[in-house]
Amino acid sequence: MKTSDDQIKDLVKQKYSEIALQDKETNQASCCGSGSCTTEVYNIMNDDYSALGGYNPEADLGLGCGLPTQFAKIKKGDVVVDLGSGAGNDCFVARAETGETGKVIGVDFTEAMIAKARHNAETLGYNNVEFRFGDIEKMPITAGVADVVVSNCVLNLVPNKDAVIKDIYRVLKPGGHFSISDVVLAGNLPENLKNKAEMYAGCVAGAIQKDVYLDLIKQNGFKEITVQKEKAIVIPDDILAKYLNQDELASFKNGKTGIFSVTVYAEKPAEKASCGPNCCC
Predict the structure, then answer these.
(1) What are the domain boundaries of the chain?
(2) By three-state DSSP, how is residue 9 classified?
(3) What CATH topology corresponds to 5-264?
(4) What is the pTM of this model?
């Protein structure tokens, strides 16, 4: 039975509220923190942030699938918005890039994550990083204020990805850009994976085809669309076995379906200069 968008959102909120109270090691031993624990102790998706400026271990819950802030071309004084900001990890890395003259705004729809992020920011003494409770399909942010938007393994959790991309376009300044890491597919997931609501919280079932994902960005008016990084994601057999029988598991592993983390860059076109009375338009 397929799950409604509202049910998926409620489930994601519940799961990530639980994750906010877990430590990084517990989250890393599961599929993007979903609670589907694997007996193989390694991180399935997350990249290592520890070498990046502004990194704070207390804010890193091990939930990402890339390093979008590393590729985001953030400049001093920029206003940066982080979608699905969690405990604040990408926000604090972004602050190291934008400096004290810039501003970083994290948006998350999980109250427990907002509380954790605000506590982390207060502990670090950052007065130009704020966290707002809200849905990234309709952000609590004025249009045209952001120089840069970043996000790490979040759009796949949202049923209506088109609405999110439209709202990214709305909040960006003309000439602004985003760098977003997310999970995408090549080929079709087995139905027993795709239709399991809990796999949305595991960052897999909500993923869409890579070409569809990139086309959504293009359709919403973005230009200079570039895949900055791509890596394959391998889900351990003991997680897959929770959802697939032996024949389905063998078929999936031997098939052509691939699960990938991609970091995508795109720009909102700059406003064209107005044509004066003496110019030829």
Answers:
(1) 5-264
(2) helix
(3) Rossmann fold (3.40.50)
(4) 0.86
